Every structure is written in structure tokens, then in C-alpha cells.
Amino acid sequence: MTTFFFTGSGHGVFDRFTTSAQLPNINRHSFILANICEISQPQGEPLDFPFQGNATMEVHNIVPLDDGTVHFRLEIDWDRDLNFRLGVAVL
């Protein structure tokens, strides 16, 4: 199993949140699990503190491609941009 984390900011539906770099050993036959959560930045700390806020965050679709990239359809149900972390495990 290999795990990767990606961070972003936004709200609404992201139809093609795509990994920015090619991931090793990813192709159309890959089995990928993902989770999403809000992240915050306590004073003096990096922006990497996961927490459960009031916003609903969902991973709808995961599409691995032969070029090593992965497309995700994400939804963040909130009225303004939130910081989030997408955790990806490749089995």
C-alpha cells in the first residue's frame, strides 16, 4: 500500500481535481481509496491539522488513468472556500 496526501482550498463540486504529478504504478486497473477532511493551521504550526468541521465533504468518483494521474470528483458543501486534505491509498 502507498499513501499520498494532496491539499487544496475551495467549495462546491470539483469535477476534475487531478493529481498534479504522476504517481508510481498507477494505471486503469489500480485500486484506489480516498478520504477527505478539513485542515487548519493552529498558530505557529503548518497547515496540516485535520479536523471535522460543520461542512460536508465527499469523494464521489475516483478515476485512475494509464498515464499515472488520478481524477477525483469532490464536493465541499459550504458557502466559502475551505482548506482540505485528500488522502489517497493505492493498494
Q: Which class best fits the helix and strand makeup?
A: mainly beta
Question: Count of helices?
Answer: 0
Mean pLDDT score? 89
Oligomeric status: single chain
As a whole number of angstroms, the C-alpha radius of gyration is 13 Å
In the predicted model, the low-confidence regions spanning at least 5 consecutive residues are: none
Per DSSP, what share of the residues sits in E-state strands of 2 or more residues?
over 45%
The residue fraction in helices comes out at under 10%
User: First CA to last CA: what distance?
Assistant: 5 Å
**Count of individual beta strands:** 7
Task: State the shape.
Answer: globular
Descriptive notes:
The chain is globular. It has strands at 2-10, 12-18, 32-40, 49-51, 56-64, 70-77, 82-90. The protein has one domain (2-90). The chain contains no helices and seven strands.
Short précis:
The chain contains no helices and seven strands.
